[in-house]
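User: Can you predict the 3D structure for this chain?
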Amino acid sequence: MSIDPARLPPHIKGRIYLFDFNNPEKDAVELDLNGDFERKHFYPHGISIYEDSDSGELRMFAVNHHISGKDRIEIFKYDEKKRSLNHLKTVMGKTIYSVNDVVAVGPESFYYTNDKYFVNKWGRVFEAMTRVAWGTVGFYDNGKDSIVATGLCFANGINISPDMRHVYVSTTFGGEVFVYERKGDNSLKEIKQIKLYSGLDNIEVDMHTGDLWLGCHPVLHTLTEHMSNISNPGGSQVLRLRLGETVTQSSNVDITEVFVDDGSMINSQTVASYYEGKLLIGTLFGKTAFCEVKHA
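Assistant: Here is the predicted structure, written as C-alpha coordinates:
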Protein backbone atom coordinates (compact mmCIF):
# COMPACT_ATOMS: atom_id res chain seq x y z
CA MET A 1 0.00 0.00 0.00
CA SER A 2 1.40 3.39 -1.00
CA ILE A 3 0.16 6.98 -0.76
CA ASP A 4 0.91 9.90 -3.06
CA PRO A 5 3.86 11.67 -1.33
CA ALA A 6 2.35 15.06 -2.14
CA ARG A 7 -0.44 14.21 0.31
CA LEU A 8 1.91 13.35 3.16
CA PRO A 9 3.89 15.52 5.63
CA PRO A 10 5.70 17.86 5.21
CA HIS A 11 3.95 18.76 1.94
CA ILE A 12 0.61 19.46 3.60
CA LYS A 13 -0.63 21.67 6.43
CA GLY A 14 -2.94 20.28 9.08
CA ARG A 15 -6.17 22.25 9.54
CA ILE A 16 -9.40 22.08 11.53
CA TYR A 17 -12.66 23.32 9.99
CA LEU A 18 -16.07 24.23 11.44
CA PHE A 19 -19.21 23.26 9.49
CA ASP A 20 -22.64 24.67 10.36
CA PHE A 21 -25.42 22.10 9.77
CA ASN A 22 -28.01 24.87 10.09
CA ASN A 23 -26.40 26.84 7.27
CA PRO A 24 -25.05 24.15 4.92
CA GLU A 25 -24.89 26.54 1.96
CA LYS A 26 -22.02 28.37 3.67
CA ASP A 27 -18.44 27.17 3.34
CA ALA A 28 -16.76 25.41 6.23
CA VAL A 29 -14.64 27.86 8.24
CA GLU A 30 -11.02 27.17 9.11
CA LEU A 31 -10.38 27.64 12.83
CA ASP A 32 -7.31 29.47 14.09
CA LEU A 33 -4.99 27.30 16.18
CA ASN A 34 -3.29 29.16 19.02
CA GLY A 35 -1.01 28.27 21.88
CA ASP A 36 2.37 26.84 22.71
CA PHE A 37 2.62 23.72 20.53
CA GLU A 38 4.35 22.68 17.32
CA ARG A 39 1.83 24.11 14.86
CA LYS A 40 3.92 23.33 11.80
CA HIS A 41 4.01 19.65 12.80
CA PHE A 42 0.28 19.33 13.45
CA TYR A 43 -1.15 16.59 11.21
CA PRO A 44 -4.60 15.73 12.62
CA HIS A 45 -6.50 12.48 12.13
CA GLY A 46 -9.41 11.50 14.44
CA ILE A 47 -11.05 14.18 16.59
CA SER A 48 -13.49 14.26 19.51
CA ILE A 49 -15.45 16.99 21.29
CA TYR A 50 -15.99 17.10 25.05
CA GLU A 51 -18.52 19.49 26.61
CA ASP A 52 -18.38 20.27 30.31
CA SER A 53 -21.92 19.75 31.62
CA ASP A 54 -21.60 22.53 34.19
CA SER A 55 -19.66 25.30 32.46
CA GLY A 56 -20.52 24.47 28.85
CA GLU A 57 -16.82 24.67 27.94
CA LEU A 58 -15.97 22.81 24.74
CA ARG A 59 -12.70 20.97 24.28
CA MET A 60 -11.43 19.31 21.14
CA PHE A 61 -9.15 16.27 21.27
CA ALA A 62 -7.18 15.54 18.09
CA VAL A 63 -4.91 12.68 17.05
CA ASN A 64 -1.68 14.22 15.80
CA HIS A 65 0.60 12.21 13.50
CA HIS A 66 3.68 14.23 14.38
CA ILE A 67 6.40 14.32 11.74
CA SER A 68 8.78 12.65 14.21
CA GLY A 69 6.70 9.47 13.93
CA LYS A 70 5.60 9.69 17.58
CA ASP A 71 1.82 9.96 17.67
CA ARG A 72 0.18 12.09 20.32
CA ILE A 73 -3.14 13.60 21.35
CA GLU A 74 -3.54 17.39 21.33
CA ILE A 75 -6.17 18.99 23.60
CA PHE A 76 -7.66 22.39 22.70
CA LYS A 77 -10.26 24.72 24.21
CA TYR A 78 -12.78 26.14 21.76
CA ASP A 79 -13.36 29.90 21.77
CA GLU A 80 -16.76 30.41 20.12
CA LYS A 81 -16.52 34.20 19.85
CA LYS A 82 -13.15 34.15 18.10
CA ARG A 83 -13.80 30.81 16.35
CA SER A 84 -10.43 29.56 17.44
CA LEU A 85 -8.86 26.61 19.23
CA ASN A 86 -6.46 27.36 22.07
CA HIS A 87 -3.95 24.61 22.79
CA LEU A 88 -3.98 23.28 26.35
CA LYS A 89 -1.98 20.07 26.44
CA THR A 90 -0.04 17.48 24.45
CA VAL A 91 -0.41 13.87 25.62
CA MET A 92 2.11 11.14 24.74
CA GLY A 93 2.63 7.68 26.17
CA LYS A 94 4.06 4.21 25.65
CA THR A 95 0.71 2.82 24.52
CA ILE A 96 -0.06 5.83 22.28
CA TYR A 97 1.88 4.78 19.20
CA SER A 98 -0.25 4.11 16.09
CA VAL A 99 -3.33 6.14 16.88
CA ASN A 100 -6.28 6.34 14.52
CA ASP A 101 -9.10 7.85 16.53
CA VAL A 102 -9.95 9.26 19.97
CA VAL A 103 -13.07 9.76 22.09
CA ALA A 104 -13.00 12.12 25.06
CA VAL A 105 -14.72 11.10 28.31
CA GLY A 106 -13.45 13.89 30.58
CA PRO A 107 -11.58 17.23 30.47
CA GLU A 108 -8.25 15.39 30.05
CA SER A 109 -9.26 11.71 29.79
CA PHE A 110 -9.97 9.67 26.68
CA TYR A 111 -10.02 6.31 24.92
CA TYR A 112 -8.10 5.83 21.68
CA THR A 113 -7.47 3.21 19.00
CA ASN A 114 -4.11 1.92 17.78
CA ASP A 115 -4.80 0.51 14.34
CA LYS A 116 -1.52 -1.41 14.13
CA TYR A 117 1.17 -2.82 16.42
CA PHE A 118 4.21 -1.87 14.34
CA VAL A 119 5.28 1.71 13.71
CA ASN A 120 7.94 0.97 11.08
CA LYS A 121 7.08 0.77 7.38
CA TRP A 122 7.62 -2.93 6.71
CA GLY A 123 6.02 -4.05 9.94
CA ARG A 124 2.91 -2.09 8.99
CA VAL A 125 2.94 -3.59 5.50
CA PHE A 126 3.13 -7.06 7.08
CA GLU A 127 0.09 -6.33 9.25
CA ALA A 128 -1.89 -4.98 6.30
CA MET A 129 -1.05 -7.98 4.10
CA THR A 130 -1.66 -10.68 6.71
CA ARG A 131 -4.67 -9.03 8.41
CA VAL A 132 -3.45 -10.00 11.87
CA ALA A 133 -5.63 -8.72 14.71
CA TRP A 134 -3.00 -6.69 16.57
CA GLY A 135 -4.97 -3.46 16.93
CA THR A 136 -5.77 -2.19 20.42
CA VAL A 137 -7.81 0.26 22.46
CA GLY A 138 -6.09 2.40 25.09
CA PHE A 139 -7.22 4.69 27.88
CA TYR A 140 -5.55 7.81 29.29
CA ASP A 141 -6.25 9.70 32.49
CA ASN A 142 -4.24 11.63 35.06
CA GLY A 143 -0.89 11.10 33.35
CA LYS A 144 -1.30 7.35 32.88
CA ASP A 145 -2.00 5.44 29.67
CA SER A 146 -2.77 1.73 29.33
CA ILE A 147 -4.20 -0.84 26.91
CA VAL A 148 -7.78 -1.86 27.74
CA ALA A 149 -8.74 -4.00 24.71
CA THR A 150 -6.79 -6.13 22.22
CA GLY A 151 -7.36 -8.47 19.27
CA LEU A 152 -8.70 -5.94 16.75
CA CYS A 153 -8.03 -6.25 13.01
CA PHE A 154 -7.09 -2.63 12.19
CA ALA A 155 -8.89 -0.79 15.00
CA ASN A 156 -10.25 2.37 13.43
CA GLY A 157 -13.10 4.53 14.72
CA ILE A 158 -14.07 4.81 18.38
CA ASN A 159 -17.01 6.48 20.08
CA ILE A 160 -19.20 6.28 23.17
CA SER A 161 -22.90 5.97 23.93
CA PRO A 162 -24.84 9.04 25.11
CA ASP A 163 -25.01 7.63 28.66
CA MET A 164 -21.23 6.97 28.60
CA ARG A 165 -21.80 3.28 29.49
CA HIS A 166 -20.74 1.64 26.21
CA VAL A 167 -17.72 2.15 23.97
CA TYR A 168 -17.91 1.31 20.26
CA VAL A 169 -14.90 0.39 18.09
CA SER A 170 -14.87 -0.32 14.35
CA THR A 171 -12.37 -2.52 12.51
CA THR A 172 -11.48 -1.90 8.89
CA PHE A 173 -10.08 -5.30 7.93
CA GLY A 174 -12.35 -7.25 10.29
CA GLY A 175 -15.50 -5.44 9.18
CA GLU A 176 -16.92 -5.52 12.71
CA VAL A 177 -18.20 -3.15 15.36
CA PHE A 178 -17.14 -4.18 18.86
CA VAL A 179 -19.39 -3.09 21.71
CA TYR A 180 -17.76 -2.82 25.13
CA GLU A 181 -19.22 -2.19 28.56
CA ARG A 182 -17.32 0.53 30.37
CA LYS A 183 -16.42 -0.44 33.93
CA GLY A 184 -15.98 1.84 36.94
CA ASP A 185 -12.18 1.69 36.63
CA ASN A 186 -12.46 2.56 32.88
CA SER A 187 -11.53 -0.99 31.81
CA LEU A 188 -13.64 -2.46 29.01
CA LYS A 189 -15.63 -5.70 28.85
CA GLU A 190 -16.59 -6.93 25.39
CA ILE A 191 -20.30 -7.71 25.17
CA LYS A 192 -21.05 -7.85 21.44
CA GLN A 193 -19.50 -8.11 17.95
CA ILE A 194 -21.52 -6.92 14.95
CA LYS A 195 -20.32 -8.24 11.58
CA LEU A 196 -21.06 -5.80 8.76
CA TYR A 197 -19.02 -7.17 5.82
CA SER A 198 -17.62 -3.77 4.88
CA GLY A 199 -14.38 -1.91 5.54
CA LEU A 200 -15.43 0.20 8.52
CA ASP A 201 -13.95 3.60 9.25
CA ASN A 202 -15.21 6.26 11.66
CA ILE A 203 -18.18 5.94 14.02
CA GLU A 204 -20.45 8.87 14.86
CA VAL A 205 -23.17 8.62 17.51
CA ASP A 206 -26.50 10.43 17.46
CA MET A 207 -26.65 11.85 20.98
CA HIS A 208 -30.48 11.93 20.89
CA THR A 209 -31.22 8.37 19.70
CA GLY A 210 -27.95 6.53 20.36
CA ASP A 211 -27.81 5.38 16.71
CA LEU A 212 -24.39 4.65 15.24
CA TRP A 213 -23.49 6.18 11.88
CA LEU A 214 -20.56 4.55 10.10
CA GLY A 215 -18.46 5.69 7.17
CA CYS A 216 -17.46 2.57 5.24
CA HIS A 217 -15.34 1.30 2.36
CA PRO A 218 -17.61 -1.38 0.83
CA VAL A 219 -14.91 -2.74 -1.52
CA LEU A 220 -11.57 -2.51 0.25
CA HIS A 221 -9.31 -2.93 -2.76
CA THR A 222 -10.77 0.27 -4.26
CA LEU A 223 -9.61 2.09 -1.11
CA THR A 224 -6.00 0.96 -1.56
CA GLU A 225 -6.14 1.81 -5.27
CA HIS A 226 -7.47 5.28 -4.48
CA MET A 227 -4.75 5.83 -1.86
CA SER A 228 -2.10 4.95 -4.44
CA ASN A 229 -3.61 7.15 -7.14
CA ILE A 230 -6.48 9.52 -6.37
CA SER A 231 -7.70 9.31 -9.96
CA ASN A 232 -8.81 5.75 -9.18
CA PRO A 233 -12.36 5.80 -7.76
CA GLY A 234 -12.96 4.44 -4.27
CA GLY A 235 -16.34 3.17 -3.10
CA SER A 236 -18.31 4.81 -0.28
CA GLN A 237 -21.05 3.62 2.04
CA VAL A 238 -23.01 4.89 5.05
CA LEU A 239 -24.52 2.41 7.51
CA ARG A 240 -26.82 3.27 10.38
CA LEU A 241 -26.94 0.87 13.34
CA ARG A 242 -29.79 0.93 15.84
CA LEU A 243 -28.86 -1.19 18.86
CA GLY A 244 -31.93 -0.87 21.03
CA GLU A 245 -32.15 -0.05 24.73
CA THR A 246 -30.41 -3.23 25.95
CA VAL A 247 -27.23 -4.48 24.28
CA THR A 248 -26.29 -8.15 24.65
CA GLN A 249 -24.51 -10.66 22.43
CA SER A 250 -27.87 -12.05 21.31
CA SER A 251 -29.80 -8.77 21.00
CA ASN A 252 -30.99 -7.69 17.57
CA VAL A 253 -29.42 -4.84 15.62
CA ASP A 254 -31.29 -2.86 12.99
CA ILE A 255 -28.88 -2.14 10.11
CA THR A 256 -29.77 0.34 7.35
CA GLU A 257 -27.70 1.25 4.31
CA VAL A 258 -28.39 4.98 4.00
CA PHE A 259 -25.98 5.84 1.20
CA VAL A 260 -23.75 3.99 -1.28
CA ASP A 261 -21.65 5.18 -4.21
CA ASP A 262 -19.06 3.53 -6.46
CA GLY A 263 -16.83 6.62 -6.47
CA SER A 264 -18.67 8.43 -9.26
CA MET A 265 -19.85 11.15 -6.87
CA ILE A 266 -17.62 10.84 -3.81
CA ASN A 267 -14.44 8.84 -3.23
CA SER A 268 -13.40 6.66 -0.29
CA GLN A 269 -15.69 8.02 2.37
CA THR A 270 -14.35 7.92 5.93
CA VAL A 271 -17.03 9.52 8.08
CA ALA A 272 -20.77 10.19 8.19
CA SER A 273 -21.92 12.84 10.67
CA TYR A 274 -25.67 13.03 11.25
CA TYR A 275 -27.65 15.91 12.77
CA GLU A 276 -31.43 16.34 12.74
CA GLY A 277 -32.12 14.78 9.35
CA LYS A 278 -28.95 16.09 7.74
CA LEU A 279 -25.84 14.13 6.84
CA LEU A 280 -22.30 15.35 6.22
CA ILE A 281 -20.02 12.86 4.48
CA GLY A 282 -16.24 13.26 4.65
CA THR A 283 -13.64 11.52 2.51
CA LEU A 284 -10.04 10.40 2.72
CA PHE A 285 -8.48 13.01 0.44
CA GLY A 286 -11.03 15.17 -1.32
CA LYS A 287 -14.58 16.40 -1.34
CA THR A 288 -17.31 16.37 1.26
CA ALA A 289 -20.99 15.78 0.54
CA PHE A 290 -24.06 17.14 2.30
CA CYS A 291 -27.51 15.63 1.99
CA GLU A 292 -30.87 15.34 3.71
CA VAL A 293 -31.98 11.97 5.05
CA LYS A 294 -35.61 11.10 4.36
CA HIS A 295 -36.71 8.53 6.95
CA ALA A 296 -39.37 6.02 5.97
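The first helix runs from residue 121 to 130. The longest strand covers residues 144-152.
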